[in-house]
Amino acid sequence: MAAIVKLSNLDKYFGRLHVLKNINLEIQERQVVCLIGRSGSGKSTLLRCINFLEEPSHGTIEVDGVIAEGRKKGKEQRQQIHDLRLKTGMVFQEFNLFPHLTVLENVIEGPVTVKGMERQKAIEIAEEHLVDVGMLFKKDEYPNRLSGGQKQRVAIARALAMEPKVMLFDEPTSALDPELIGEVLNAMKRIAREGMTMIVVTHEMGFAREVADRVLVIADGEIIEDAKPVDLFSHPKDPRTQALIDRYRSGDE
Predict the structure, then answer these.
(1) In this structure, what are the phi and psi dihedrals at residue 206, rounded to the nearest 5 degrees?
(2) Rounded Cα gap, residues 225 and 70, in angstroms
(3) CA angle 198, 202, 34 (to 5 degrees)
(4) Which of 58, 119, 217, 221 is such that its CA lies 20 to 30 A from the CA of 240?
(5) DSSP E strands, 93-190
(6) CA 108, 114, 117, 118 torsion: positive or negative?
(7) d(C-alpha 41, C-alpha 9), whole Å
(8) Residues of the chain whose pLDDT is less than 50?
(9) DSSP label at 203?
(10) In b/e form, how buried is each residue of 211-249, taking b as 16+ CB within 10 angstroms?
(11) How many CB atoms lie within 10 A of CB 143?
(12) pLDDT of the residue at 248
């Protein structure tokens, strides 16, 4: 089976700081891949390079047949990045909802303005995904009337409404109070069960154990382990992975 996401010889520098070092990675369709690592290890930068929110310093990104190269310029490159972003949905730590739009209006904004979708069709798709995340009953509310967990679930529905091939999650629960984390993770579990390809930067080890097909450990800008959760958490091969797991268990990360 061909990979739906392929990173080849990916490097990222911030000035002289070498943040990602020759990353090569393939992810299959319908896989859920969790990225874990200490703060500053490069995991969020890796995720953001996939849709060129961070431009790679070197290397190639391929998502569902769309290929874009780091540091390449010109009209063709801009079109490739645009096409690649249409293939990926992104959910951030912060919810970034438009405060002057209702929940439903937030979710249809992208399909209507970016994809040129007819409004009624966009509403039908938006309502389907609001059902997926358990938020249809709030479709006419404004964001200031929602809890943090509800806002994040709307943000997930908004990303899904663009009908991406791959969903990218950048620590989607890190800005939430502990009692609200579960509702967001449950929404993500439902999406995973429906077969969406997902790449998730997370500190939620329980989610990684339960939902991920693979867990990647990032350290110092490199992938140091790539394994099934049962193998990685039971028998980590790299001492840095064991130290990371121990820190999570003690609540230090």
Answers:
(1) -65, -40
(2) 25
(3) 40
(4) 58
(5) 166-170
(6) positive
(7) 18
(8) none
(9) S
(10) bbbbbbbbbebebbbebebeebbeebeeebbeebbeebe
(11) 20
(12) 77
